[in-house]
Amino acid sequence: MPLLVPQLPTGSHYGILAEFATPADLYHACERVRDEGFTRWDAHSPFPVHGLDKAMGLRRSPLPWIVLVMGLTGAALGFALQWWVHAKAYPLVISGKPYVSWPAYIPVTFEVGVLFGALGAVFGMLGLNRLPMHYHPLFRSKVFERVTDDAFFISIESWDPRFDASATRKLLESLGARSVELLES
Amino acid sequence: MAQSEAELLDNPVAGRPTLILRSPDFHSITDVVAEPLERPTPIGWWLLFIPSVGLLSLLGVAVTWLFWEGIGIWGLNQPVGWAWDITNFVFWVGIGHAGTLISAILFLFRQKWRTSINRAAEAMTIFAVMCALTFPGIHVGRVWVAYWMFPIPNQMGMWPNFRSPLLWDVFAVSIYGTVSVLFWYVGLIPDLATMRDRSKTPIRKFVYGLFALGWRGSARQWHHYESAYLVLAALATPLVLSVHSIVSMDFAVSLLPGWHTTVFPPYFVAGAIFSGFAMVLTLMVICRKAFRLEHIITLRHFDYMAKIMLVTGTMVGYAYATEFFTAWYSGNPYEFFTFMNRALGPYAWAYWIMVSCNVISPQVFWFKKARTSIPILFVLSIVINIGMWFERFVIIVTSLHRDFLPSSWGYFTPTMWDVMCLLGSFGLFFTMFCLFVRFLPMVATAEVKTVLPQADPHWHPGSEHQIKDHRAAPRHRGAPEPAPEGSS
What we know:
The structure holds two protein chains of two kinds.
Chain A: E1 13-20, H1 23-35, E2 41-44, H2 52-56, H3 63-89, H4 106-128, E3 152-157, H5 165-174, E4 179-184
Antiparallel strand pairs in A: 1-3, 1-4, 2-3
Chain B: H1 2-8, H2 26-38, H3 43-69, H4 84-108, H5 118-139, H6 165-198, H7 202-212, H8 219-252, H9 264-290, H10 299-329, H11 333-344, H12 348-360, H13 368-371, H14 374-401, H15 416-439, H16 445-450, H17 461-472
Helix pairs in contact in B: 3-15, 4-5, 4-8, 4-9, 4-14, 5-6, 5-15, 6-7, 6-8, 8-9, 9-10, 9-14, 10-11, 11-12, 12-14
């Protein structure tokens, strides 16, 4: 489970942060970093760059499965609530219909299913992304403030088995990085 | 300027213009959206905000008196037991639907032009649902038993009836409100992070930072984020269709001539989208001017919205005709009487206001000149919303006011408290909208940046130059190719 993996490198350095000028530069640099065999690294951009998950070699998000399970659970609970109220807790003949007149239960069943699915999507996304996380070593970098504006970055964390402060820096510089910075943890 | 932009829409040489005009870079998009939130509050904002709060206080007064005295202060009596309260409810829920259509349905159809307007339209949805939920809450009169609408037993151990559309409505609208807030907030997270990173004061940094949840734009985060956004759009799409269908079932499941109609769900959904787009237009015409967003919310956006209004308005007109045909074809004298009474009876004035505003007026949108003229769009957007309010009034009141026996015939006249509740709900809506544009980025900058040409990872500077030159000096057919730009 991703939530159980420790989140930050333990050494004195968090890792290396390199800035790139355009989404295209970032994309090609990511392809190289992926092919070099790095595993604990990330790209950062102000907007989702199309196809970057492929350039980074990310696997499909498991989120739709979380939503499916949550949605079906919600729908089942919604139906169970109505069934229990009308068949068990407060049985009452209304309009001469059977206690469990299930077609009339469909709207609420559907709505509760959607509610649980949406909650699963939002909180599932936050959980997979480990948010909220208001502190992060990346926020110490001054240039990183522009990541939500117009700057593109690759960060390679120091606990990556292939990480080497000087060699990794050289690699990122050779990929066309505008600036490269070593971050403390 | 507007004229030249309208011509641009039609220019066969340049082809379709990019969605965002004036080829801005990423930073200028951030700037133009975020900068107004960082300036001292302009006078113009107060000029809109203070009257809105004034109207809102009318709602406060009216609701206080309503709770004290009971719903008799409204013009309700036998046989009209539902009038402006439920008219306002259906009107406001309908307004909200365009926001979800823009944010969810157009997203699924990959209509990229939605990125310029989806944030503001979603905000509109949330505030409209707030206004809508006010009315079922207060129209019960005895507000201390409003909890009877919730799925819990009351003090007599009785449970609500889940076979009733009124209870479906409670679930549909409150879940719709919740999902709309979730969807809106997810969309806001990256922009809140932008506001956080631009903050100059510690308070702003703290508050925006708190709600940005520590977003750092990482590709691994975007990966799950985009998946969540897509799934939410896929959930919100059937949700929005179900909500107004269920609202229409409040009427359609009853046995009253004029309400008991199978065409209601699709007809109500079309009407909801129609009125909602009109409200989006009203708001966007003002906002793009006030915030100088003319290059982000362009005439092309208005052109598209006007086309959707033409389609939905015509669908609504078709539904009016179908109702009449069915009333005649059914051979049911009560059904036929209700509809003849609607068009020719004491409320004929309301019926013909509805038809002229909703069916006739949007027909001018067949003409491109009308679709790209700001004054025409603005006036028509207001006319359409007046018409859509009257549609709900006509459906609700004309069906009730002449019961089966002439001894139970009546005529509903609103009181000043009815008027205050309606005006007050506009106060609530505009107060919330003013607060929204003052404190939150009203354009989804992270999304707008993705539709700029340079956001494409396979874009290279040369291609951009060529398009620009092309447009600046349209070539004649057969003219030689322009010399290539200095290669970069």
